[in-house]
Amino acid sequence: MEEARTPEFYSDTFDYSFNPYGFSITFSLGASRQTQGRASAARDQATVRMSLQQAKVISMLLRKSLSAYERENGIEISIPAQVFDALGVSREDWPDPNGRVP
Predict the structure, then answer these.
(1) Is 85 a domain residue?
(2) In this structure, is residue 3 part of a structural domain?
(3) Hey, how many other C-beta atoms are within 10 angstroms of the C-beta on 16?
(4) Does pTM surpass 0.85?
(5) pLDDT for position 37
(6) Using CB atoms within 10 A as the burial measure, which of 11, 76, 97, 102 is most buried?
(7) Structural domain total, the chain
């Protein structure tokens, strides 16, 4: 009997929500073609639901791992200013790859 494979997805956009009972994140894929004058809708790939505790731990581990990756490789994973503005976050929300406090 062949073992079932875990599905894999690529995502270039996401949306999330939470309430006192849990957290949900939907990973989506933007349209491959832009229709002139119309915004193309993203196609949902997968929705993951979890406890608030698990979401917090995942966010902590991702931040720690990505910061270590930047530091160990002497790089900064760049994010365009437009993305910061659209999401309402700033460069100061991410630790400096060299360990300096912004």
Answers:
(1) yes
(2) no
(3) 12
(4) no
(5) 62
(6) 97
(7) 1
